[in-house]
Amino acid sequence: MPVEEAFETLNAAAPRGWRVELIEGEIHVTPPANGEQEEIVSEVTGQARDHRKDLGRYTGIGLFLPDASVSGRVQPDVVLAPKGSFADDAEYHDASAVLLVAEVTSRSTAGNDRVKKIRGYARAGIPVYLLIDRETEQVVVCTEPSGEDYDTKAAYKLGEVVPLPEPVGFDLDTGAF
Question: What sequence ranges are listed for the domain Putative restriction endonuclease (predicted)?
Fold first, then answer.
């Protein structure tokens, strides 16, 4: 069975809250997030709402990253894009409108979040990738996508105020995490 077909089958059968992603030709199934991760996601989206009312704040939205693999499909923890960017019934969307993706690491996703997803998001040209790494207690802001990576990566300790550059353009207070 081709990997895309297996992905479709698993995705359709996944229980509510489970995340099925196709990253660099591999299927990854992730259980629902724990409370700590959801609190961080809520705080990021809340601060985005407070600073950028013009942006939609999406959690669990599917993105199609064709340059990340044959048919890469991911569900970032947070996506910021102009409101209305995903106003259709598609399960996975073109990532061209996305201004920022954020991932909050967990034991089951950290490897993908730190390596494979950086490649996929950079290839897709997403301007800002925000990696909130709970294990290393760091926040990494990746900007200037170029090929399979980001040219600029700035690391901050959890608890610090993290400047998110344009096109996002606000300071994220990670002390609330």
Answer: 6-173
